[in-house]
Fold each of these.
Amino acid sequence: MNTTTNNGAKQYFEQIYQRPVILEAKKLTQVFQHGKTQRTVLNQLDLKIHKREFICVIGPSGCGKSTFSRVVAGLDPYHSGELLVDGQPIIGPSPERGMVFQGYTLFPWKTVKENVMFGPLMKGASHASAEAHAREWIDIIGLEKYENQYPHQLSGGMKQRVAIARALVNQPKILLMDEPFGALDPHTRQKMQKHLMDLWQNIDITIIFVTHDMDEAILLADRIVALKANPGEIKEIIEVDLPRPRNAELMLTPEFKRLREHVDALVHAQEEELDPALEELPKIPRMTQVSTHK
């Protein structure tokens, strides 16, 4: 999976677009009711995501990124339009769409192994089968030494690895990730990004990844869906024409910086439109007498 030249990038995206469409939004609209008023959060989104794509969704606060991931997961009903997986409408949650949140959503009273076993058991697998599948995924995420530990005994990065395993053990077609690394320190976040890319390149999965972090979006994505807010609409879909496999050193290249400037202009230009206070912050008055002398 290499895209080392512009021609290579063109061929890479041609191959992507030849794959079947796994998720399609047609005029997707989501409206929230606030008393007697309505707020349109997503406004007639049209989007096709192809099998095994890595899509990042980015945009200013309030643009509907998390709302989009929740309606795709089937956690929230949408107001109008169509939302299809393999041509079939989404009408609620399904094991074919796994979800990983920013917050740690593991069951605190269950061990690592028991957390990962939960999905297969709910689908009717025997205890032995669920345990075997759980152990397989625990090995894949590198936590076999911790399978009998409880969530409070794990670091933040470990907890998110367990959450990813718990989602993937159900063999979903689509993995939805809503700011999954947002609470991690920079070093752990970088390691988790690499781990996720390794997983994606070695299993049959389509990933939709919501993030505020522009560098993260460029590093991970095949395409970036940039949303605008009020109402949430697709402002631009950006093809990330950078070579794979990717690592942190890529961020130092002119090509990465070029993409970052473009994404930054898309996202932050509207943030200032939405919040004029960002354009010029007030000067803070001196509230106490501050002395430089001891």
Note: The chain has two domains: 11-96+173-272, 109-171.
Amino acid sequence: MDYAEEQSMEVEALEAIYMEEYTKIADSPLEYKIFLEPIQGGGEDENHVAIDMMVKYPETYPEVAPEITINNRRGLGDHQIPEIMELVNTTAEENIGMAMIFTIAEAVKEWLNENNVKGADGSMHTAMLQRMEAAKKAAADADAAAARAAAADVDEDEEAEEARRLQRLADGTPVNPETFADWKVRFKAEMRRAHAEGVGAAGGVAAAALAADLTHQATPQFTKPTGRQLFERHLATEGDEEGDEVKLEEDGEDWPEAAQEEGETVEVNTAVFAADDEDLDDLDDLEDSEEEEGG
């Protein structure tokens, strides 16, 4: 492995990532520092703690761990620096053989974020504030977990109920004396309700239909007489080539109202009676012939 090339490539990447937070101290051996705070680029109002991570490469890095020291820049107590160093050493051991400075730096930033409390100097007051903050966060997490579990239970209950409903539809309702009696009671109740609603709605229609029927019965119905009826009643009188005028007698059941007016006449075509006259003459001759044969 070309250690110098590996180290040079890593430093180039770190300069691009951390930019102003990266500061080179020496070239041989390669040494630099990275300024770390919880929110990169944030102000002191947001970042209550901050450190300088000092890095020095051994000749055979990354086959061996780098030399790293932590300088407190803001907000940390003396007893907290060893905690950070323990985190640094553990992370370095886990990444022997590969470029590891970025991994170590991000682990330290996460620790700083968890301890980003104003006045986090390791005093009893600060410790109490941290415990309160941790308890508050734990309670919020527990509430969120409970809400998710409740929502999941509701979904499961709804799914189970839907499955039962579909199963009931598939199985149908078993018919036995109890279910039939229950259905009969409900059916009769529905029929009575439907009948009551129907009577109320149909009352007006029925009344109108009854009134129309009575009116129809009270109105005289007239039927125009046939030609034979006119002839048999001897209502036909004098005619001419175009048609004879015949005086019609009143008939309350057969004649239209217009024909009952006094003196009104209708035109009758006597030609329609010619066939009836011949039929009557033939009928008279037939009767005379039968009488002669019988006598």
Note: Confidence is low (pLDDT under 50) at residues 238-255, 258-262.
Amino acid sequence: MIAIESIGLTKYYGRLLAVDHIYFKVNVGEVFGFLGPNGAGKTTTIRMLTGLTKPTEGTAKIFGYNILREKIMAKKMFGVVPEFTNIYDGLTAWDNLMFMGELYRIPKYEREKYGLELLKIFGLYERRNDLVKTFSKGMKRKLCIAMALIHKPRLLFLDEPTSGLDIHSTIIIRNIIRKLNEEGVTVFLTTHNIEEANILCDRIAIIYRGRIIAINTPERLKMAIKKVQSIVIAFNRFSPKILEDLRKNSLINDVRKEGDKIKLYTSDPPDVLEYIFQYANRNGLKIISINTLRPSLEEVFLKLTGGMGK
């Protein structure tokens, strides 16, 4: 079954083409990542999918409901967690949660019962009567997710859910996303955090300049650019001349210094490894460590968006 279907969604702002005729489907039960740099069209897409922004062309369906023609039915199926919280700082956590329940016309008994459950799940029960303006960013983000879940949606849209959070809060939010998905909630996650997409998502769409340039699982995306393999090496000493020498080898596509290590990109690791050992021997260098690596999702992203050196 299909949870989300984008059918040629397109958005112009004046002459600026923000989203360019995108087509994709999200299956029920997936964590689907929407990955792209700032300004690529992620937030505009999520606003069109949720009915907040009218597309210039195209449409979308949520569990079969057309977001333009059947907006009320479609909106009952999902919750939205925007990048910037939609919480009222002057209200308590409890009042914010109950207000959201009222907007969805959930009966008082049901919203109070489930609201208490959500506050306990998100670790906010003890602070339920405190004003939200006293909350940390991480606590506000948890409350925002709880508010999006008050009507028990089958689909959750998360726009940059961990943006601006500290490491501890980020880990908590990621664990919440995993738990929700295990309980059957389909998740649509927009992010520019490549590592986050890699560890959370079943499939990923990469959007760049308003166009989707790839859709697949993280591992298959990595396999698609097998040529971009790398060798990471640490010598007992470093000098800029080492980088200059390595760049002269025609088998090496790119050379980068990363901390105390050197990273080489190549389509021919065996021959490059042989060259490195010979080079080290000729120049009196001792190899401290050496590893060959498959492409990372970051390297896939950079390759597809033209951000990796040739």
Note: The chain has eleven helices and 14 strands.
